[in-house]
Structure formats: C-alpha cells, structure tokens
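Researcher: Please predict.
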Amino acid sequence: MSYNDTFQLSQDTVFDLLSSSRRRFIIRRLKSRSTGIDLQTLAGDLAAQEADIDRDELTAQQRKRIYVSLYQTHIPKLADADVIQYDPDTSVVHPGPKLDSLEAYLTQTDDRNRLVWVHIGITLVGTVIVTFAILLGAFRTAAIIGAIALGAATAITAITTVQTNSDR
C-alpha cells in the first residue's frame, strides 16, 4: 500500500466531502480539539450556528433535525473516507487518519477570506485619504489621482469578493 492510499484522499472525494457545510463544520471542530466530541454536543453546536442563536435557545426539534442529519448522512460519509472515526457505543466522534489531508483545502478558503479583508482595508484607507484631500481643497491633482486609485481598489475588492463567494 502506498502513501497516497494510506493518508491521502482523491480530489473527487475531497470535493465531495467538503461540499457540505455540515461536514466542513465537523472537520473544523475536530481539528480544533485534541479529543473526540460527543455527537449530541456536535449536533447542538451546529444547530445553534445554523440558526444563529445561542445553544440554550435551541428547541428539541432543531437539535433532533441536525442530529439525524449528522448520524444518518454526514458521519457515515466522513467515517467511510477515514476522515473521522465514530464509536456508536459511546456516540463520540474522533479524528480519523485522513483528517489532516483536508487541512490544506480548508486553509485555502481562509486565505481567500483574508485577502478580501485586505482589499477592503485598502479601499477604506484610500477613501479616507481622498475624502481629506477633497475636504481640505488642496492637492486637486492628488485628489483626482486618489479618486482613480480608490476606484481601482474598489473594483479589485468587488471582483475578489464575487470570486470568493462564487467559489463557496
């Protein structure tokens, strides 16, 4: 058995596994912990995130809906790919031997999000500079150049944001 057979996943498998936000949630949660996590806890945390409310405010129906989805669909799919290990006796999900092979794909998404924020920051700084130049009435040429630069920065930010969101 080769290294790729043991520790790597095919690109098709990776894309299939990461196509679900629920599976990405499970993967990220396991990467952030040194131990396994109870399936009930995982389902409650995910339900709270999806509903955008505190965990204490969840209804039994909201928890159950996510729990069933994880138990019947997402946990088996991740376990079959050896990304996680699930113990049905204790209902605990543990990191699997191939969990680390997905890290590069998740990190790339995080890097793109950082790039969008960098572009937004540049645009805001440019806006402030141009605004002050115009308000002071000085440096009309600088204000015009600044306005052109601001327009270019805004366009780049918009394009980057659209590309980042369309890749999700």
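Model: The chain has seven helices and three strands.
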